[in-house]
Specification:
heterodimer, A: mainly alpha, 87% helix, B: alpha/beta, 6-stranded mixed sheet, 4-stranded antiparallel sheet, 33% helix
Chain lengths: 215, 302
């Protein structure tokens, strides 16, 4: 299992580098800005900056989730290394677990950091709804791109379809809003539909990968 | 399916279509324990498709496959510890160094043999620090062979492993296969376009044409029993009576060449007695000639 996880970290290396760069932008930039602002004026501007970056960070995590989901199987199928892996006496369950662990290592801490930034300066209760919503949308983006990755050999198309799913969710929420439903009702709807769709897509991807004979 | 220990490779009524194209057509093949079989056919004959179905990389439309006693694809995960597979193009992760690829594979095979692996490393003269993507085609194939052999598999399946190799690398690769398999009675199926390799290595040969197995015979008896009879005709325009067991015939000017299977002097006498021939002689054939004539004969019959 450790060999598999090490391999997946290497397969995802480009995505991990991108995540690291984003992390630097999300963390260092606002923190430096906040320190400068606090030193200069001592006002609440620093908190506002961190809050903005915390919110932006959540959107970045959604993109990261789509990228990691999209890379899951397609990247190995594209260069035929999936066949090399398929010829090893490894159960597909272990391969799935390794990929999920690797993607989680990137997505979960990033979401946690962005959430901490938001909660630290807006308060947990105020930011809880937003955090829950983004968590569900992350599940949606990851689930769709994971399923697409199990079906195609293009990581970029899979990731884009994951993001397209998120956009569709936003468009649908906007449409529902126009019918006069309350914001809390819409947010609940978004959360439930995103999480359910994402989980179904994720399970679908796992089933496709486990049952298909050609890797 | 039975006789698993006797026949580590068993395929029965295997069929596979791609769209409307029937690529493998009702193929049945059993390879006895410890034998090396050359799997030959023209491009598109269905060799790679058959092999990919055997190793569980492709689902057959119908038919049964049992490799090393495991049904494929339903028991493919259990089968994998018992087979070695060398694909037509190396598919090791390009970013892996040779040593990394070995370490990675070793982690999953309980019966990995490090001494054997080291011997093969020396034999193939592979650079441990080289990345797989930077290896030449020959070295990539050697790495695939090393990974396929180092866990002492019962069955070795090679899919055109030497295609595109220069003669020296091909020789080194074949020596590796011979050395590795001769000391461990492995059952080997290898497809190749280089019939000289098949003639040299294989105990028997299986010829595939348009998805059908047209011949499966020991190489020695095939070459002993297949002959080419060359007759000089007295009159080209007269009708020719072909002997029983004819595989292929060709007329060029007054020269009539007939390839026959299960050769006997009776066939020569038949030609002499039923046709007006001036001269007749019997020639030995190479595997290359047999293959070409069988394919031409099959095409002619179709």
């Amino acid at each position: 299992m450790i060999a598999l996880i090490r391999k997946d970290f290497r397969v995802y290396r480009a995505a991990f580098i991108a995540v690291a760069l984003w992390l630097i932008v999300i963390l260092l930039n606002p923190i430096v800005n906040a320190i400068i602002m606090t030193l200069q004026s001592g006002s609440n501007d620093a908190a506002n900056v961190l809050e903005d970056w915390g919110m932006a960070g959540h959107w970045v995590v959604i993109c990261v989730a789509a990228v990691f989901g999209g890379c899951a199987f397609a990247i190995e199928r594209r260069d035929r290394s999936a066949e090399f892996l398929a010829m090893m006496p490894i159960s597909r369950g272990k391969i799935l677990a390794s990929k999920l662990i690797t993607a989680s290592v990137a997505v979960v801490p990033l979401w946690f950091i962005a959430s901490c930034m938001l909660a630290g300066f807006c308060g947990i209760l105020q930011s809880l709804q937003f955090m829950q919503t983004t968590a569900c949308v992350i599940v949606l983006a990851f689930g769709i791109s994971w399923l697409c990755s199990a079906l195609t050999r293009s990581p970029s198309i899979s990731a884009c379809l994951g993001l397209a799913g998120v956009l569709l969710e936003i468009v649908l929420a906007t449409q529902v809003h126009e019918y006069g439903y309350s914001n809390s009702y819409i947010m609940n709807l978004v959360r439930i539909s995103a999480a359910v769709t994402g989980i179904f897509c994720f399970i679908g991807g796992c089933i496709v990968f486990t049952w298909r004979v050609s890797p | 399916m039975s006789d698993v220990t006797e026949f580590p490779i068993m395929v029965k009524n295997l069929t596979r279509r791609f769209g409307k194209s029937l690529v493998v057509n009702d193929l049945s093949l059993s390879i006895p324990f410890g034998k090396m079989v050359g799997f030959i056919g023209l491009n598109g004959a269905g060799k790679t498709t058959t092999i990919r179905m055997m190793v569980g990389l492709l689902k057959p439309d119908s038919g049964e496959i049992a490799i090393a006693g495991y049904r494929v694809p339903s028991q493919r995960d259990s089968m994998k510890s018992h087979i070695g597979y060398v694909p037509d193009r190396p598919n090791v992760y390009g970013w892996m160094r040779v040593q990394e690829a070995i370490d990675f594979a070793r982690a999953f095979y309980p019966n990995w043999n490090p001494d054997h692996c080291e011997r093969l490393m020396k034999m193939f003269d592979l650079d441990r620090s080289q990345r797989a993507k930077n290896l030449s085609k020959g070295q990539g194939a050697k790495l695939s062979l090393l990974l396929a052999l180092s866990h002492d598999p019962e069955v070795l399946i090679l899919d055109e492993p030497t295609s595109g190799f220069d003669p020296l690398v091909r020789e080194e690769f074949l020596q590796g296969v011979l050395a590795a398999t001769s000391e461990r009675r492995q059952t080997v199926l290898f497809s190749s376009h280089t019939l000289a390799d098949v003639e040299r290595l294989a105990d028997s040969v299986a010829i595939l044409h348009e998805g059908r197995l047209v011949l499966h015979s020991p190489v020695d008896s095939l070459l002993d029993c297949t002959k080419r009879i060359r007759a000089v005709l007295e009159d080209v325009s007269s009708a020719r009576q072909t002997p029983p067991g004819m595989v292929f015939q060709q007329v060029s000017g007054r020269e009539w060449t007939i390839t026959v299977e299960k050769f006997s002097r009776d066939q020569v006498e038949f030609i002499r007695s039923h046709n007006r021939v001036l001269q007749i002689e019997v020639l030995d054939v190479s595997l290359d000639d047999v293959f070409k004539d069988i394919i031409r004969g099959t095409r002619g019959a179709a």
